[in-house]
Amino acid sequence: IARPKASNEEATLDATESLYRDTYDWNDKLDYSTGVLAFHWSVSQSLDALNTHNVFMSANTTADAEESWAVLRNGDGTQNEGTSSSSSSSSSSMKDRPFNFYVHRASMTDESASPPNCDSIMVLVPCPTLARNEDLASLPRDEAIEVYKQQFGKGMVDDVRDAVLRRLSVLGGLENLSDLILDEVLDTPATYADYYNVGAGVPFGLSHGLGQLSLTRPAAECKTRNNVLFVGASSRPGNGVPLVLIGSKQVAKKAIEKLKNMMIP
User: Fold this and answer.
1) Of 132, 167, 177, 151, residue with least CA distance to 72
2) What is the pTM of this model?
3) pLDDT for 216-242, tens place per residue?
4) For residues 66 and 221, what is the distance between their CA atoms, to the nearest angstrom?
5) What gap in Å lies between CA 149 and CA 55, rounded to an integer?
């Protein structure tokens, strides 16, 4: 049976849907900052051993200090490009390797962050970014994101969680922290990509190497579309709240000028 010829209106709609189809991909020629595994824990008792901001460093030797920053970023034994991280071997266990992490205890300064005699903390552990797969760029966004989520499998996540709990157990009152956790919400580079559409799934944007610093960072004005402006940590002038606010002010001025020019008859 021959398919009826589409009307001009239907053809236009099909072309528009194809042009603006929701996908997920990023420019892997840029250098991105680290990914993050974030554990959000609701706890059944107050964790008084923790301050509001807590940084746990691992540096018994210079070699340990260097490895502590590379343990999850280099993919050695925990994540190989384009593969799932669910099959971590015992030889690559985080419990046996130096690594650094950050803990935020909001209730220290905000009592509304948890019920009385309970607590809530967020643990951030540096990890690899998403490994780009060009074949996923043509898939619908939801399908691509589901595939990317497989790069951070249960094996890797469980290993990192256990390693963090082991490190925290040396603090008074946190010896059996795993038994006190009532609920957990986990974020990975894949969930950050899903929630915020960030390239490579990194919450901190582009890195700040010399090739991406200040004027070498992507500009605010889009090269291909005159009505698009960029603002945020990955554009000029750079990362961090002060710089992002400066960039926002500059982009606001550019947007006003563009709108004024569009209104001139």
Assistant:
1) 151
2) 0.81
3) 899 999 989 888 999 999 999 988 899
4) 38
5) 27
Q: Are 26 and 192 in contact (CB under 8 A)?
A: no
DSSP secondary structure of 12-70: HHHHHHHHT-------TTSPB--EEEEEEEEESS--TT--SEEEE---SSHHHHHHHHH
Task: Note the pLDDT tens digit of each residue in 126-168.
Answer: 999 999 999 999 999 999 999 999 999 999 999 999 999 999 9
Kindly report the number of other CB atoms within 10 A of residue 222's CB atom: 12
